[in-house]
Amino acid sequence: MGVSQDQSKTSLAEFRSQFIALQNKHYLNFGAQGVISERTLQAMMESYHFVQENGPLNNTMFEWIVNQAKQLKETIASNFGGEAGSYAITQNATEGCNIALWGVDWKEGDRLLLTDSEHNGVVAAAKQLSKRRGVILDYCDLSKLQSDEQILKELEQSLKSKPRMFLFSHVLWNTGAVLPAKQIASLCRQSSCISVIDGAQSAGVLPIDVADIGADAYAITGHKWMGGPEGVGSLHVREEALDFIQPTFVGWRSTVYDGSENPPFLKGAARFEIATSPFPLMSGLDQALQIHSSYASAEERYQRIVRIARALRAEIESLPGVKFLSERQDSSLVSFTLENRSPGQIVKALEENFKVTVRTIPFPSCIRASVHYFSEDEAREFASALAAVLK
Predict the structure, then answer these.
(1) Which tens digit of pLDDT belongs to each residue from 339-358?
(2) Domain boundary assignment for the chain
(3) Backbone angles phi and psi of 233, in degrees to 5
(4) Class level of CATH domain 45-293
(5) Which residue among 88, 184, 262, 274 sits deepest, i.e. has the most Cβ atoms within 10 Å of its Cβ?
(6) Residue 157's CB: how many other CB atoms inside 10 A?
(7) Are 85 and 70 in contact, with CB atoms under 8 Å apart?
(8) What is the model's pTM?
């Protein structure tokens, strides 16, 4: 496919062999859900066994639970920047976005700004917020803009309406466009606008330093690009933002357990955690992050992702009816429409006849292939299978 055969070829093959899901299909749907390694599965099973053998809950196990969360936050911080105490453990990126959305003391008539390409889960939450609090929803039309300069200019216009918050995806889930997050966060600060980033399609793909980006909140999930289990994610909240993003749901993990009538919140982002969670799953995400970090640096993994994605585009761009949603290819998502062909039928044919897994996106109606840094073989098979289906 035009991707260079680098020195990691042998070790990459060995690396791939530990992912069960890569052994019997051509999987290119990491943007929806990633694949879990044998080592990650083992870490979770060992944790569940440990809990039952030693607890499930007593003084020893409570200490273990606290340490599990602490260890995971430290690992997340080592991968994505910031201080460990600035992260809350969540279920996924959508929950993180909801924490930020509902944590603000909205007044009727306040404005919430979204892009025109946000995931329907976040849009649904925003609409519910609008319905219950009288918040006005505005949309910044970014999906058809190709340069950072155009994006920032459009945002400057949208910020003139004085939105209280701008919630946007670092990587748009449909087009795959990478937004200039650091510059956007800076513009928001200058306009006294809270910045919240949905990192579902960026964490595990882009090299990220949340402290350098400077957004008030950055939500990630572990079950996509990081290869962790479903149900474990994280939310980074900038220290200064703790003054205006407050917990909506509160439980024993949110406060100092001192028996007082009004117990104080815990320091940092831990105040956004609530109560009992599947704590053994945290060891799975921790292990998954360590596995990916052991293969190559975040920058090296990202550069390989982009090379594979661009090579895939080059392979399929001349196929009949193919039109890409974005002129740029700076992320892991390769999205395209097909003239006079049903994306759903094509995706079904690819899976049934060639064991190729991709997905459709409803807005706009298109096919989206999600490539990872170890997806060169899958990308090649997808290009070949798509050509066969479109004949």
Answers:
(1) 999 999 999 999 999 999 99
(2) 9-30+297-389, 45-293
(3) -145, -165
(4) alpha beta
(5) 88
(6) 10
(7) no
(8) 0.95
Q: Please calculate the CA angle 152-154-159 and round it to the nearest 5 degrees.
A: 90
Quote the CA–CA distance of 367 and 331 in Å, as a whole number.
Answer: 15
Of residues 382, 318, 319, 375, the one with CA closest to residue 350: 382
pLDDT per residue as tens digits for the range 260-317: 888 899 999 999 999 999 999 999 999 999 999 999 999 999 999 999 999 999 999 9
Q: For residue range 205-256, what is the model confidence (pLDDT) as tens digits?
A: 999 999 999 999 999 999 999 999 999 999 999 999 999 999 999 999 999 9
CA separation for the pair 64, 57 (Å, rounded): 10
Query: Which residue type does 30 have?
Result: F
**How far is 23 from 182, CA to CA, in rounded Å?**
39
- Whether 306 and 207 have beta carbons less than 8 Å apart is answered as no
φ and ψ at residue 65, rounded to 5 degrees: -60, -45
Calpha distance 227→295 (Å, rounded): 13
Structure tokens at 15: 């690396």
β-strand 26-27 against 111-115: which pairing, if any? unpaired
Q: Helix, strand, coil proportions of the chain in percent (round to 5)?
A: 45, 15, 40
